[in-house]
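Q: What does the assembly look like in three dimensions?
Context provided by user:
Components: two
Sequences:
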Amino acid sequence: MRQSRNVVWLSAILLSLALVASACGGGDSDSPSSESSGSSSPGSESSDMDDPPDTDLSGEIFISGSSTVEPISLRVQELFNDIHPNVLIAVDGPGTGDGFALFCSGETDISDASRAIKDSEADQCAANGINYVELQVGIDGLGVMTNAANDAVECVSFADLYALTGPEATGIGSWADANAVSAELGGAGNLPDLPLDIFGPGEESGTFDTYVELVIEHPAEERGQDPTTRPDYSPSGDDNVILRGITGSDTSLGWVGFAFANNAQGVKLLDVDDGESGCVGATPATIASGEYPLSRPLFIYVNSDKAAANPGLDAYVDYYMGEGLDRAVAEVGYVELTEAAKSEVRAAWAR
Amino acid sequence: MALTTIGTAARQGTTAFTRQRRDFAGGLFKAVILLSLIVSLAVLAVLIVDTVADGWAQLSTRAWDFLNGSLRSRSIDDKLGVKQGLYGSLWIGIIVAVTAFPVGVGAAVYLEEYAPKSRWSAIIELVIRNLAGVPSVVYGLLGLFLFVERSTIFGFLGLGWLADATGGRSVLSAGLTLAVLVLPIVIITAQEAVRAVPTGLKEGAYGLGATKSEMVRTQILPYAAPGILTGTLLAMSRAIGEAAPLILVGAISGGLTRNPAVWDTSGLREKFTALPIIIVEWVSERGRDPGFATAAAAAIVVLLVLVLLMNMTAILLRNRFEKKRG
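A: Here is the predicted structure of the complete assembly.
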């Protein structure tokens, strides 16, 4: 008797859990959106969207790789699924290297990457017979800024930036204090003797990672330092807060994503010298051409054999090459390619 | 009579003694332990208030949409929400309950009632206790090799079929991984509950001619039920809050088209996400899009409510069973 009551109670718990779940999902059976449609019932759901979704196209796509590119691929998925709700797409972002490991073992259809594929990774792909197309989709750029009223600085070199913001800069309060380290790295060492207030993204930010990777990692490694910034600056996850900091101090230094920096008021974008090609101003043109050194290309790598076999995947990349390049890249905060570069990428995909 | 007199005298003596030398150390001790209680409660209160305040913009204006929404690329999106994670977490909870509960209780009853007390059983107990303390990432790796990839070791052991059965990076793999993670906890709590069954009850059953299995069914399990259930539900709460093992078994962080209803069992072998994964993802996305900070806080509140509901169920169940047993 007791025992059977226990069973009743146990089923009651499981049932109540299921009820909680179904209550949460209550609105979902009558919603026409892409999300409730499983692959098992193509064409059976009704829709009240402007464009009737094309339910004929189906397939599954697994995208993994860079967490920087992840939002672009996700944005393209959202737009694409409004039209083709039965193409089931999963976008993951464990990192570029992990992404290539999965891609070259044939597990993923598309690999997002914030750098070009390495030789070792390409060898791995070749060994497993994975054929792919490399498509650049956008650019991740950084703008280095100071206050608009600061006339003393026009151009900073990578050596200067390392000396000002790297781990060895901990504690310095004047731009000139960085000259010694900058000179050691081959910089000009002519920074002015002005108070230094630094504002930048916090460690949680992808912009922080990009900055460390482009500016700090290499010299820090050579000099046996940790590849990170100095800890004593004002970090923020919110670009607007960084901007307020820079406009609030006459001799400030800061960096944010280029798309944001380019539209900011009251700040001056500094020219950047990578130590080889001289000072380059940060403009959409120099970023798109790759001349401006504080930028990196963002790629997707598409498994071409899978694209040939999977119409859903093929259509998704087609869409990526259209609305993706023209709309999604800018919407999630990255720099669009130039029209010429877009045509080139589209041509590469069409081949 | 004489004893009473001595007792009274002793009591008077103590009173006189403490009155003379006031109990400073005792008072101090009481203050310190009270303070530690206040500190831990205050930290919890600050955490909850802060999280709810951070997530309020989402929760107050679009709570229902937030519960019904999915992973999106931008925080300003009508469809942003946690449904996929909520379903993933609920499924993980159900899979853990369905698998870890019977296996754990069975193992506990065997160890307590059937296993001969030898050096071996002592070693097994020790191993189980140590397993309960192994970091969850390690279980994540085990899950990766056992349920997700067809690894050579487990293929060699004849367990390669597991990865095929689970569908690889699926919610089933995640649920089973977390079931293995909480299994030692379920066994230990169930063992303690079984051990607490009065010997008189067992002997009474034997005295009435019950066999061992009848005794286990009619006496031990009903008597130990509150303890076993509490332990299982607490283990489920633990499983639902884990993020690290899920990252290893391949929970999706970016986005999923598929968003099946929770009763749709075909989703079991599909790619999935879970609430802790969504929280980690949104916290890291807030650098690109600060609005995700609010969404992450709101998702934490949803997870907290879910865990609190489960713990509440555990307490209600225990009370109910104890009353019945009483």
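Follow-up: Chain A has two domains: 56-139+296-350, 141-295.
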